Amino acid sequence: MKYTLRTAALMIGLLLISNGYASTAVETCKKLFDNAEYEKALAPCLEAGKNGHQDSQSILGEIYNNKGNSQETYFWWIRAANAGYLPARNQLAMKFYYGGSVFGPEEGWRQDYP
Questions:
Q1: What's residue 110's pLDDT?
Q2: Of 12, 69, 85, 95, which sees the most CB atoms within 10 A?
Q3: pLDDT, averaged in runs of 10, over the chain (114 residues)
Q4: % helix, strand, coil for the chain, step of 5
């Protein structure tokens, strides 16, 4: 019984620490992205995105979109969209509708409709 309580307390402590660390990554991701420090935002956003944070996944899509990397953009936006994150769904819809952006077609987004 004594070991069970210690183990449970240890597990709860580790869970709280990991959640706190993840929220720090999310906050750092958002702060750096909002300050247009995209390269610095990449690492904390990747950490938060891999842990399933939808806003961070959408931000990663934005960062990779600005770099012109349509595969990584799609990868992160589709993860967020499939999790129900509406801004990511909207971004994907716009890319597929326009075959890129409102400014014109972009490589990797063109759709051939019958």
A1: 77
A2: 95
A3: 59 49 83 96 96 96 94 96 96 90 82 68
A4: 75, 5, 20
The pLDDT value given to residue 100: 86
Please give the single-letter amino acid code of residue 100: G
3-class DSSP state of 70: helix
Q: Which residues of 9-31 are buried (b: 16+ CB within 10 A; e: fewer)?
A: eeeeeeeeeeeeebeebbebbbe
CATH numbers and ranges of domains, the chain: 2-104 (1.25.40)
Neighbours of 82 (CB within 10 A): 12
Contact 106, 113 (CB under 8 A): no
- Cβ 18 vs Cβ 50: under 8 Å: no
CA–CA separation, 4 and 97 (whole Å): 56
